[in-house]
């Protein structure tokens, strides 16, 4: 159980922070940047939930919880339980990726195929979901970059890749099942 009885610790005043295994790294390290951006995705999902209702809000709540799991995964560089830890590191699981894929497929079956790229916008919820999509793509890029220099759980990368797809399809659903999507018109303002 997490207990936060004091919010500031002063331990980061010199530009370092503790990872989930207790090791200290620079706050600008690739690992901290990756999980910090996952936290940013979670904040954008919180904004999207202000405009969401019903099943969409419930799905976004699940995603927010998954994003905390993902942050916990990324903040632990050691992939195995160590002798000094009472519990194994929390890792993203293939089942979380599978759930996103099933939800994408369920939403997508109600949508007409695209014949143009979509501009972010339409309804308030769709606009927020597009913001979620772009920030999750950045989190994915940073996590993939981290994986070139340190070990990263493969399911974490897959989850981020599917998540941005989920946000894209959900944004179309939020635009009246795609009927109110704002389509790109190449060269329209020349």
From TrEMBL:
SUPFAM superfamilies: Cobalamin adenosyltransferase-like. Gene3D superfamilies: Cobalamin adenosyltransferase-like. It is an enzyme of class 2 (transferase). Its main location: cytoplasm. One of its GO terms (cellular component) is cytoplasm. It catalyses: 2 cob(II)yrinate a,c diamide + reduced [electron-transfer flavoprotein] + 2 ATP = 2 adenosylcob(III)yrinate a,c-diamide + 2 triphosphate + oxidized [electron-transfer flavoprotein] + 3 H(+); 2 cob(II)alamin + reduced [electron-transfer flavoprotein] + 2 ATP = 2 adenosylcob(III)alamin + 2 triphosphate + oxidized [electron-transfer flavoprotein] + 3 H(+). InterPro entries: CblAdoTrfase-like, CblAdoTrfase-like_sf, PduO-typ. It holds the Pfam family Cob_adeno_trans. Its EC number is 2.5.1.17. Residues 7-173 form the Cobalamin adenosyltransferase-like domain. GO terms for molecular function: ATP binding; corrinoid adenosyltransferase activity. It is found in: Cytoplasm. Keywords: ATP-binding, Cobalamin biosynthesis, Cytoplasm, Nucleotide-binding, Transferase. Pathway: Cofactor biosynthesis; adenosylcobalamin biosynthesis; adenosylcobalamin from cob(II)yrinate a,c-diamide: step 2/7. GO terms for biological process: cobalamin biosynthetic process. Belongs to the Cob(I)alamin adenosyltransferase family. This is Corrinoid adenosyltransferase.
């Amino acid at each position: 159980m997490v207990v936060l009885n004091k919010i500031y610790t002063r331990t980061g005043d010199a530009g370092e922070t503790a990872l989930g295994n207790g090791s200290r790294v620079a706050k600008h390290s690739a690992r901290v940047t990756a999980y910090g951006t996952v936290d940013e995705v979670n904040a954008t999902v919180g904004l999207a939930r202000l405009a969401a209702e019903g099943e969409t809000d419930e799905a976004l709540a699940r995603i927010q919880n998954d994003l905390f799991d993902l942050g916990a995964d990324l903040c632990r560089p050691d992939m195995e339980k160590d002798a000094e830890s009472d519990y194994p590191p929390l890792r993203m699981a293939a089942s979380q990726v599978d759930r996103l894929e099933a939800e994408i497929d369920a939403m997508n079956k109600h949508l007409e195929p695209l014949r143009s790229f979509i501009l972010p916008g339409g309804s308030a919820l769709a606009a927020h979901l597009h913001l979620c999509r772009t920030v999750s793509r950045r989190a994915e890029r940073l996590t993939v970059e981290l994986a070139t220099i340190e070990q990263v759980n493969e399911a974490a990368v897959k989850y981020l890749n599917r998540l941005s797809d989920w946000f894209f399809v959900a944004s179309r659903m939020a635009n009246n099942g795609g009927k109110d999507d704002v389509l790109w018109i190449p060269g329209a303002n020349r």
